[in-house]
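Question: does this match?
>
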Amino acid sequence: MAYKIDEARCVGCGACAWVCLFDAPQAADGNASVYKINEKKCISCGHCEEICPNNAIAPDANHREILRVTIDPDKCVGCSVCEHVCPDKAPHGELHKPFEIDQDECFRCGACAQRCRHDAIRVEYA
């Protein structure tokens, strides 16, 4: 579930690396003239695709769009890790009580689900 960079179209501007909170775009060579996306770090949020001035970035063949991210109140222990890792601060709540995700604020990247140690966050795909 990663995005790919068309190296023939990449001009090495670094906009993708600048916008990525997960350090997925990386210089493909020593002088950063072309970037590639580290699939292990990419969470498929799509911010790199949106910012690329040359339209060199697109989802790979295995990409699945995230429709919704929710927290299971029965599993959530209120640790607040989700709130701290979310780039949009969509999860909110009170410590030691189940958190919720503001669906209007969530841009559906799934970062919170990757970091949740209690398997309390569900990601629904298209």
